[in-house]
Amino acid sequence: MDADYGIGRELSDVQKHRSQYQPELPPCLQGTTVRVELGDATTASDPSGEHTISRSFPHTYGQPLAHFLRATAKVTDAQIITEHPAKRVGVVFCGRQSPGGHNVIWGIHDALKIHNPNSTLLGFLGGSEGLFAQKTLEITNDVLSTYKNQGGYDMLGRTKDQIRSTEQVNAAMAACKALKLDALIIIGGVTSNTDAAQLAETFAEAKCQTKVVGVPVTLNGDLKNQFVETNVGFDTICKVNSQLISNVCTDALSAEKYYYFIRLMGRKASHVALECTLQSHPNMVILGEEVAASKLTLFDITNKICDAVQARAEQDKNHGVILLPEGLIESIPEVYALLQEIHGLLRQGVSADKISSQLSPWASALFEFLPPFIKKQLLLYPESDDSAQLSQIETEKLIAHLVETEMNKRLKEGTYKGKKFNAICHFFGYQARGSLPSKFDCDYAYVLGHICYHILAAGLNGYMATVTNLKNPVNKWRCAAAPITAMMTVKRYGRGPGNAAIGKPAVHPATVDLKGKAYELLSQNATKFLLDDVYRNPGPLQFDGPGADAKAVTLCVEDQDYMGRIKKLQEYLDKVRTIVKPGCSQDVLKAALSAMASVTDILSVMSSPSTVNTPF
């Protein structure tokens, strides 16, 4: 909290070059007129949680989608806003730093000043702690000058990533009232945007004038749903990590005697590991979602890797690269259960050195089996969401240790006839998250910043800035805003002590879809990656020339554009209303009724509440 925030940086030549780059805006955000079309009321994606969410968020649930339109759009009921009174807006970084965060603030600033030069943007210093303490810095062009298109969060800093307790919420409201803010913009991931939704609801109930807006910024790539295709920072993180992985692959192929185990940052979901695999083609990746779905044990994972090592050795290949997501450790059933016991005891105040004696017999047996360094790391106090401190648990060393032990055993028994197994371990986490943002993340973040202003101009509260059709050029991006409550789901039940209360609505992390096109692409190439050494090096992060406009593979292979489809559906419904009017022929009416009845029956079945309580 005492750091010198907002001071000018000393920039390298590359940084200076990047600071001059002006991100492009889609047509719907250009000019000084805000055109917004409010669609139908939103609902929860899982109907079984709708009642709980609507009860928890009576003021902000069921709000309509907002589509921002270009000047040439012909929409009769669009709201056209030409008057832009001066606004006072606060912005805060919540959660871990992610490349592109500064450009969100730049976009907000530019949009505010374009529409009214007298508007004020205040940045809270030191994250949510700065919000509670009302420590601010006015964001000006001078402040922004050395932070445009730059990595990190050091312009404002960050601390805790939560605004959750009654005391914290009240402190946030007090700050907004004292500073007379028209809006508070929260930049962060799933946890921060869940908090943003709760703030918006609380502010609305208290008749506080401050509107709350969320922005999807997280390197983990797990704030994904029908409205949000990807997150600011994910593209950069994956490109930087993919180059590092590719360099390691080349090293492995050159020395031909090492197996590299690389753990990647990304929290519980395996999005980063999947994307990096598709970009760099290492020999193997163990996704946490696969492990959880198949209920693979530590023993199963060890044998799976050992079998792969043995298969490669039969082709005279005694090297390889294996990726592991940092959330893998919590996906292993017996380790997850052990962690739940440990966390429960820690929350009861049991000291770490006495935990082992109070574990259940089966948990104690597993704990004693593990190497000392892992034991120590599993005993770390859990995060605020009850997850383990994943970045501190060296899963790659644990897996490498178990694989080495098993390979030595096979070598001794004569079932493995290759060379002695040698492992080298890496954790790629902090190396990438302070990177200069990619061209995509620069554009995406800046556009989201502009959308934040459009949301405020439309008087909306409890919304997240969204862009769809992202795999296409910027001029085809669809800019919109979706209520955060429409992104929420409800946990059916907790899986251990200290978990979220039953039925608590939240924006939950999206896991890798094992039925999705990205995973299908991985599955199709898994054998080739394993045995053929088809390593691919995308090179360093590129801002011009070949590769500068490349986007994440997982973004490009999926067929998303949810907002576009919603608009297309609305067009069809409008056509039906135009054709089927009183006075139309009996045949037209009968055809319409028959078709609509069929569609309604199908949709009713598809959208009926699930009867199975599935734990998240």
Describe the model.
By secondary structure, this protein is of the alpha/beta class. It folds into three domains: 29-70 and 87-233 and 437-492, 3-Layer(aba) Sandwich (Rossmann fold), CATH 3.40.50; 234-431 and 513-557, Rossmann fold (3-Layer(aba) Sandwich), CATH 3.40.50; 562-597. 42% of the residues lie in helices and 13% in strands. The chain has 22 helices and 16 strands. It has helices spanning 13-19, 50-56, 101-115, 127-133, 141-144, 166-178, 190-205, 234-255, 271-280, 288-294, 298-313, 328-331, 333-347, 361-369, 372-378, 395-413, 430-433, 439-457, 517-532, 553-557, 562-579, 586-606, and strands spanning 34-41, 64-68, 79-81, 88-93, 120-124, 136-138, 183-188, 211-216, 259-264, 284-285, 320-325, 423-428, 463-468, 478-483, 489-490, 505-506. Strands 3-1-2-14-13-8-7-4-5-6 form a ten-stranded mixed β-sheet, sandwiched between helices. Helix 4 crosses helix 6, helix 11 crosses helix 16 (395-413) and helix 13 (333-347) crosses helix 14. The longest helix has 22 residues, at 234-255. The chain is globular. It starts with 12 loop residues before the first helix and ends in a 10-residue tail after the last helix.
